[in-house]
Write a structure and sequence with these properties.
- This protein is of the alpha/beta class.
- It contains 19 helices and ten strands.
- A hairpin with a 2-residue loop joins strand 1 and strand 2.
- The radius of gyration is 36 Å and the shape is elongated.
- Helix 7 packs antiparallel against helix 9 (230-282).
- It has a six-stranded mixed β-sheet, sandwiched between helices. The protein has a four-stranded antiparallel β-sheet with strand order 2-1-4-5, covered by helices on one side.
- Bound molecules: adenosine-5'-triphosphate.
């Protein structure tokens, strides 16, 4: 479907406003053209006096014979016309701009809300900066189009029709000559448009590319600095920006030619009216007043068509932008949110993995996962890096959908449950949790509506975070910077844990980032784990085996498969992978 049609379908709730705005634009144009007609009538009055066109309008009740009165009457009509033109200009400007604001707001919000619901795999194949440029630049471009372009198109169209009507009424033979260039101009405008469309698509894509690179670099500034890679990265930005400049230059070469070409076509129409009309007037076949109207009107008819150049340019630019924004909105959500609702408090927390298998982009990552985690149990997953531990919990959170088997929560397949209810029942402390640019307290209370300071403090206490928070300049009211960058990695982890504890979920998942913790932190982790795992199902992905020694069951993963399961002592007794890992970490010999 054409982007404009798609935009209309999207903005169908504003159909009434579109109609009103269009009516205001048409009425404004109508009043805008009338002064030219008035000039003709005035010339006619001056030349013909009591024999004028105005004096002859007895039938409609006018028939003003006195020349002075005729002029006064024209003056009065003139004021009305200009008043009408101004009024409708005000009305159409307000209406179109308001429409532009309303639609850009809706589109931005809808697109963002849609993007939020897309599955993780979508984002892995997208560059954040590109999405940003769609949600920002492209939506703004659409706003600019509705703001001004729509009115311009309507008015060019209207003035062509209205002026042609006056022409044909006055002198059909001149009308034909004056209108001769119009098909040529329209054909030219379409020809240019077709050539502009792919160029503007390229411009929008290049803009997205620049934005993606900038975004990526600003996020990785610390690494860029550490590697003294400023020059290297600047050259990447330089290349992306050059590409954007070149794409724009290709579009400019075409779009800049439109006005001059159209002007030449207008020239032919205008010259013909001037010469042929003058000739007819001299020979008494055309009234002087009518001749002056025709000369002025040729200008009025043809000049707005030069505006077509600007409109065609903006139109193509906007269609490329609208296409990108609406495509984003139409991207299918592959992991649907809909499903059976249930309250988080009612969840017992029994989990079962049945024959679960999963691959990223066809690369097998998990296979034959069969396990049951009893309600309230604490279970650990250990194993070498890349063995699939994090992937396992991401399947439970339905960040990805398992290709084989199924996962059940309290006997219900999780893909039959409402996605948000499922996630509300799970507290997830990721390896690198997302912290916002707010205060410590705001970060702990993230996503919850009304939480008391006492509850926040208690959650911080359980997460062993109180000590470092009390040392911050403003305690719980300290702002922690974007992504929590004013805190250490360990401190960020503590805050993320406090946040999960405050949520009080029936299932808690802790994905430890590293085994590199000092003894003190290790003891703190153990203490908080004892506290937070009480009364809920707890899954710990551990790198440091000593932190999960007390777990009800430890599963060892290797290459996406569970190779050993059991409690710490029995696993040591098996003298397999777990025992080897334990020896490696503790330096002890288990036998
Ligand atoms: N989004 C992804 N797209 C493609 N491959 C991925 C993705 N995430 C992880 N992988 C791959 O899947 C495998 C398992 O990754 P996973 O994060 O589950 O391992 P892990 O056991 O948690 O590792 P670690 O102990 O280092 O955290 C790895 O080989 C990894 O490269």
């Amino acid at each position: 479907m054409h982007p404009l049609k798609r935009l209309f379908a999207y903005a169908s709730r504003y159909r009434r406003d579109f109609r009103l705005a269009t009516a205001y634009s048409v009425l404004n144009k109508f009043f805008d053209i009338l002064p030219e007609v008035l000039i003709g009538v005035a010339v006619d009055v001056v030349v013909k006096g009591e024999e004028s066109f105005l004096a002859k309008q007895v039938l409609v009740g006018l028939g003003i014979s006195d020349v002075w009165h005729q002029l006064l009457f024209l003056g009065f009509i003139n004021v009305l016309i200009w008043g009408g033109e101004s009024l409708f200009q005000y009305l159409y400007e307000v209406k179109w701009r308001q429409l532009a604001q309303d639609i850009q707001h809706d589109l931005r919000l809808d697109a963002y809300q849609h993007v939020q619901k897309l599955e993780m795999a979508y984002f892995e194949n997208q560059r954040t900066g590109n999405l940003l440029s769609i949600l920002n630049d492209d939506v703004n471009q659409m706003e600019r189009f509705v703001n001004g372009g729509a009115n311009q198109i309507i008015q060019v169209f209207c003035s062509s029709i209205m002026v042609s009507a006056v022409f044909f009424a006055l002198q059909p033979s001149i009308a034909l000559i004056a209108l001769l260039p119009v098909p040529l101009i329209l054909f030219g405008a379409f020809w240019f448009q077709n050539r502009l469309a792919p160029r503007y698509t390229e411009v929008r894509e290049a803009a997205g590319d620049v934005s993606a690179r900038l975004n990526n670099n600003l996020l990785g500034l610390a690494t860029i600095k550490a590697f003294a890679a400023e020059g290297f990265e600047a050259s990447h930005i330089d290349a992306a920006s050059r590409h954007y400049r070149a794409a724009n230059a290709r579009a400019i070469r075409i779009s800049a030619a439109i006005t001059p070409v159209i002007r030449m076509a207008i020239l032919s129409g205008f010259t013909a009216t001037l010469i042929y009309g003058g000739w007819l007037t001299i020979h008494g076949e055309l009234a002087v007043g009518a001749y002056s109207v025709l000369v002025f009107l040729t200008q009025r008819l043809l000049w707005p068509l030069t505006g077509l150049a600007e409109v065609a340019d903006m139109y193509q630019r906007s269609m490329a932008a609208i296409e990108r924004a609406l495509n984003l909105l139409d991207t299918p959500i592959n992991i649907p949110y809909e499903g059976q609702h249930f309250p988080a408090q009612g969840v017992k927390g029994e989990l079962r993995f049945e024959q679960v298998g999963f691959s990223y982009d066809g690369r097998p990552t998990l296979a034959d996962i069969n396990l049951t985690i009893g309600a309230g149990q604490t279970v650990a997953f250990v194993g070498s890096t890349g063995s699939g531990k994090s992937t396992l919990v991401k399947l439970l959170l339905r960040f990805y959908a398992a290709q084989h088997g199924r996962i059940l929560l309290d006997g219900q397949a999780i893909d039959s449950l409402n996605l948000q209810d499922l996630r509300r029942a799970i507290g997830y402390v990721a390896q690198d949790s997302f912290l916002t640019d707010g205060t410590v307290a705001e970060n702990i209370a993230y996503g919850l509506d009304s939480v008391s300071d006492a509850d926040i403090a208690a959650a911080a206490q359980a997460a062993e975070a109180t000590e470092f928070i009390s040392k911050l300049p403003l305690g719980f009211a300290t702002r922690i910077g974007e992504r929590g960058q004013k805190l250490s990695g360990g401190q960020r982890q503590r805050l993320a844990l406090a946040r999960a504890i405050l949520k009080n979920p029936p299932i808690l998942i802790l994905d430890e980032a590293t085994s590199a913790v000092d003894n003190e932190t290790e003891a703190a982790i153990q203490r908080s784990l004892d506290v937070v795992s009480r009364g809920r199902t707890t899954i710990v992905i551990a790198h440091r085996l000593s932190t999960v020694r007390q777990a009800d069951c430890i599963h060892v993963l290797e290459n996406g498969r569970i190779v050993e399961s059991g409690q710490h002592t029995s696993l040591l007794a098996q003298n397999g992978s777990y025992a080897a890992l334990w020896r490696l970490q503790t330096g002890e010999r288990s036998n």
